[in-house]
Amino acid sequence: MTASSRWSARAGNGCVFVDDSELDRVILQHQVRSGLMPYIHPLRLASGRACLTEDSPWHHPHQHGIQLAFTNVNGCDFWHYPGQKADQMVGLIQASDPQIQNNSNKASWVIQTVWKHKDGSHLLAGKQNWSLTGQDDLIFVDLDWTLRSITDVTIKEYPYGGLFIRMPFRSEYGATVINSQGLKDLDTEQQEASWVDLHMPIEHARYLGDGKVESSPLQGGIAVFDHPDNLGHPVKWRVDHQRGINPSPCIKGNVELPSGTALQLRYRLVLHGDSLTAEKL
Question: What is the DSSP annotation of 6-67?
Fold first, then answer.
């Protein structure tokens, strides 16, 4: 079955859904609801069994699967939702209706956003071009993300910010992180790399009938590649204690965007079940 006949995107109920015709189920759901920053959850492996993302975990309730945000843009926090931090100036990333652009070999969709300061002023116009395709047991999710400044904008230096991935880490199972420089686990935190791969056991319940449930972890991972043309490449990465990963353009310093200029960032996410060697990556 060709990739074009297997995966297709559609919009509805404030979401983008990517359907997998081979599995007859949704493999990706992109939340694009009013009043919330857009984010992806759930996101599944090609087998359809393991969900690779987690929404609002207890240790980081403000994080949602795969999200695009910064902590300080002209003094305003876009990492949280309005109301989550009563003592902080929190802005809103407002999305318009998604545009579906499926083509001959991939599911594709576009989400446009406006970054609104708490005072009501508009700071950035964002455009997220997403696509999904696959080969064998791998799925490729590509992002071409542009932020164009509406006024003079400063994205302040911070230990994280940008494309952030939250997988369902459990301390009792652990996880493995490797990067392009040969570093592992928490040694990858705040280090430069062209790519980072995160792989872990993922809780999975299988219903056997008659009220019986079998629970055993499945294996799953996401490798994230920073495009060579991205700002500051090879970028420094956030890798936190619960293994949230983030190629962040603001770790090395402020990002200055004079009015009318643009920041373009491109990434590839490779979803895999079995662990991948550094050589294969």
Answer: HEEEEEETTEEEEEETTTTEEEEEEE--TTS--EEEEEB-TTS--B---BS-TT-TT-BSEE
Mean pLDDT of 174-194: 97
**Two tokens at 4?**
């074009």
CB-count exposure of residue 103 (10 Å: 0-12, 13-18, 19+): exposed
Tell me the pTM: 0.93
C-alpha closest to that of 247 among 188, 203, 201: 188
Per-residue b or e along 185-220, where b marks 16 or more CB atoms closer than 10 Å to that residue's CB: eeebbebbbbbbbbbbbbeeeeeeeeeeeeeeebeb
Cα separation, 125 vs 231, whole angstroms: 18
For the beta carbon of residue 41, count every other beta carbon within 10 angstroms: 19
- Supply the pLDDT for residue 243: 95
238 DSSP 8-state letter: E
pLDDT tens-digit readout, 247-257: 999 999 999 99
Q: How far apart are CA 144 and CA 71, in angstroms?
A: 21
Sign of CA dihedral 237, 238, 241, 245: negative
* Residues recorded for the chain: 281
- 88 φ/ψ angles, rounded to the nearest 5 degrees: -120, 155
